[in-house]
Amino acid sequence: MIKRVLVTGGAGFIGSHIVADLCEKGYEPIVLDNFSNSSPKIIPVLEKICSKKLELVQIDIKDKEKLFNFFKSASVDAVIHLAAYKAVGESVEKPLKYYENNISGLVNLLLAMQEHKVKNFIFSSSATVYGDAKVVPIPENSPISAANPYGRTKLMSEEILKDTAFSDKDLSIIALRYFNPIGAHKSADIGELPSGIPNNLFPYIAQVALGKLPHLNVFGNDYDTPDGTCIRDYIHILDIASGHTAALEKIASGFKGFDVYNLGTGIGYSVLDIVNAFKKASGIDLPVKPAARRAGDVPRSCANPDKANKELNWKAKYNLEEMCKDGWAWYKKHPEGFV
Ligand code: WQD
Questions:
Q1: Cα–Cα–Cα angle for 17, 85, 235, nearest 5°?
Q2: Quick one: pLDDT band at residue 195, thresholds 50, 70, 90?
Q3: In ligand 1, which atom is closest to the CA atom of 301?
Q4: Alpha helical stretches, state H, the chain
Q5: Which DSSP string corresponds to 169-215?
Q6: What is the pLDDT of residues 157-183, one digit of tens each?
Q7: Could you tell me if the CB of 126 is within 6 A of ligand 1?
Q8: Rg, the chain, Cα only
Q9: Does any ligand 1 atom lie closer than 6 A to the CB of residue 58?
Q10: Measured distance between the N- and C-terminal CA atoms of the chain, rounded to whole angstroms
C-alpha cells in the first residue's frame, strides 16, 4: 500500500503541482526542499489548496547525513524525485555544481532509500535526453544523447536508476521524460516563480505581458518548420502532475523493475503559435522581435505519448488555450510570486 510519498523539490513549480494532485487523490505527500529555487511561502498556499497541514522537510539532498536521519523516522512508502538544478546555460558554465547536486544528490537519496528499504521511486527526467531526434513525434526507444551537462545529468541519472533496479528485483523505478510544462493550478495561487530573466518561453512571455520586459525575442525564424520557428510539445502542468500519480498507481498495481515514459501531448506548437495563443488568452498584444537562433535549440521536439497513454492509463487532457489561460491567470494574480 502506497500512502506516504516523499516529493523532493516539492516546493518548486512542478513539485508543488504534484503535491496538490497527490492530496487530491488521497495520498499523504511529504515536501522535501532546500528552497534554493523555490519559496517557503508556498507552503501555506499549498496547504490551503490541499485543505490540510503538510509535512515539510527542509533538507539539501547533498547532505547525506540529514537525508539518512530523515528516512530513519519517516516511514516513506515512495519517493518522487524532482530536486535538481535545471538551467541548461548555467550547467555549461558550472558543470561540477550540476554533477554534485543532480548526481551525488540522487545517489545519496537512493542510498538512504536502500538503507531504509524504500522500494518505490519516480524520477523527473526530461525530453532533453532526446537531443535532435530523427523521429518526431519521439518514442521512448529513440536514441538518447545530451548536448550539455544538465542533459547529461538526466541521462546519467537514468543509467544509475537502471543499474539500481537491476541490482534489486524488488525495486520499482519509473523515469518520466517531461516535454515543455507550462500553465498553472486552476486556483491561480501556485505557478512558476517569476524570478530573474526567464530562460524559458512561457515565463518570458508572461514578464513581457506584465510590462517587466520590453519585448519577446524570437530565437530564430528560419528553421525548417511551417512558420520558421521551433516546435515544442507544450503540456499543462496539471497533466504533468497527474502523470506522476498515474505512475504511482502503476507501481501500486505491482510493477517491478525500471521503465521510462514520455509526458507530452503529442501535439507540437511553434513559438509563434504560443505567442498567438497567449495573445488570445490574455487579450494582450505582445511586442515580438526576431532574434538570432539560440545555441543548442533543436527545430522540433514533440512526444509520442502512446506508451504512457496505454501503460500508465494516462493522457494529457488540457489544450493550449487552457495552458495559456491558466498560466496567465497565475502571473496576473501574483506578478511578484509568493510575497
Ligand atoms: C522553447 C522554444 C526557444 C525563450 C528547456 C530545456 C529543457 C526543459 C524545458 C528542463 C525554443 C524559444 C525561448 C525566448 C524564444 N527544462 N524561445 N524566446 O528549450 O524546449 O526546453 O525547458 O528539463 O531541458 O532545454 O524550452 O521554453 O526554453 O524554449 O524564442 O525568450 O522557445 O528558442 O525554440 P526548451 P524553452
A1: 40
A2: confident
A3: 20
A4: 13-24, 42-50, 64-74, 88-93, 95-98, 105-115, 149-167, 201-209, 237-252, 271-282, 306-311, 320-333
A5: TT-EEEEEEE-EEE---TTSSS-----SS-SSHHHHHHHHHTTSSS-
A6: 999 999 999 999 999 999 999 999 999
A7: yes
A8: 19
A9: no
A10: 38
Residue 203: asked if its preceding bond is cis (omega within 30°), the reply is no
- Tell me, using a 6 A CB cutoff, whether residue 180 lines ligand 1: yes
Residue 194 predicted with pLDDT over 80: no
If 0-12 CB within 10 Å is exposed, 13-18 middle and 19+ buried, where does residue 226 land?
A: exposed
User: What values do phi and psi take at 131, rounded to 5?
Assistant: 55, -140
State if pTM tops 0.90: yes
**Cβ of residue 39 lying under 6 Å from some atom of ligand 1:** no
What is the length of the chain?
339
CA of 332 to the centre of ligand 1 (A): 22
The Cα–Cα gap between 190 and 193 comes to 9
Per the CB < 8 A criterion, the answer to whether 138 and 301 are in contact is: yes
Cβ proximity of 156 and 144 under 8 Å: no
Q: Does the beta carbon of 219 lie inside 6 Å of ligand 1?
A: yes
Task: Tell me how far apart the alpha carbons of residues 186 and 193 are, in angstroms, rounded to a whole number.
Answer: 16
Q: What is the mean pLDDT of the chain?
A: 97
Best of 150, 294, 302, 324 for a ligand 1 pocket test (most atoms within 8 Å of beta carbon) = 294
How far is ligand 1, taken at its centre, from the CA of residue 200, in Å? 5
CB–CB of 71/113 below 8 Å? yes
* 195-208 mean pLDDT: 94
CB neighbours of residue 199 within 10 Å = 13
- Angle at alpha carbon of residue 113, lines to 108 and 116, rounded to 5°: 125
Residue 302 bridge partners (DSSP): none
Backbone angles phi, psi at 152, to 5 degrees: -65, -35
Q: pLDDT at residue 190 above 90?
A: yes
